[in-house]
Write a structure and sequence with these properties.
Helix content: 40-55%
Strand content: under 5%
Number of helices: 13
Distance between the termini: 40 Å
Radius of gyration: 23 Å
Oligomer: single chain
Number of strands: 0
Structural class: mainly alpha
Largest sheet: none
Amino acid sequence: MPITRSFTKKSILQQGQVQPGADLSTSPPNPAPEPRVSAGRKRQKNNALKISKEETKNPSGLPDIEELSYNKANGSAVSSEPPANWEKVLEGIRKMKTLEPVYSLGVDETDSSLPPKERRFAVLLSALLSSLTKDKVADGALQRLLQNGLHTAEAIDKADEATIKDLIYPVAFYTRKSCNMKKIAKICLTKYDGDIPSSLDKLLALPGIGPKMANMVMTLGWFNVQGICVDTHVHRICNRLGWVTQPGTKQKTSSPEQTREALQRWLPKEEWVRINPLLVGFGQTICTPLRPCCGMCTVSEFCPSAFKESSTSSSKSKKSGKR
């Protein structure tokens, strides 16, 4: 979800220190030799173990809507060398004229009418609804909650879960999200007097809230920039530009959370808020997920991925046409 407001940073808190890892230097003792079994029985045993592990990973059979867990020990405060020409790339993207994000955060429209505590809780609801959901769908769900007075912890706690579920439908995982909303409301009432947590770690402890959501809530709710909000657009574009890699390798990052950590190691903090709406607009209009418009991009000369994905897509379509 893009951030479409500009903010005055009240404070930027220090990131957590890297914690020492467990001692892995001691090798485990040699295991006792296994008794001989037939090949058929061994295959059956391996298949049973495989099924057991898969069930343990996801007993419900549904994908997990919560984002990757936040790892304080990953050291996103550790600086690294910025990529070449990154300032030219950002400036070039800013100058392109078609980069207004398609979506604006729905809760912004209610800023002037809601008291601060209620506005913060509405921001938290908006973040929860946005997970794996198209922006306009999430915005519609939030507006229906606002119209029915269900934008405070007290109101959500008193409301019937079925009513909440009906109002937020058709957001992705609306049943689980309505359940999490009830849990969050109860926590906010009992621990924070109806307000939302004011720290990143406490926000991440809420059910259904992952790193991207927590950082967005800290920025929009508390005007306190704690980290970069990395969604699918920011994750994709930073990898295409070669701006982020996995620690100690040249491999692309494999998740938005890895991208956030890698980006925060070198991007100046004054750019942390602005980079989300900038790259979201760029990703929605030019650097699209499929067939990016590299011919329209004014910074393609600095992009190691330029024309590779677009030419691959066009060549595939030509081949299918010949058939």
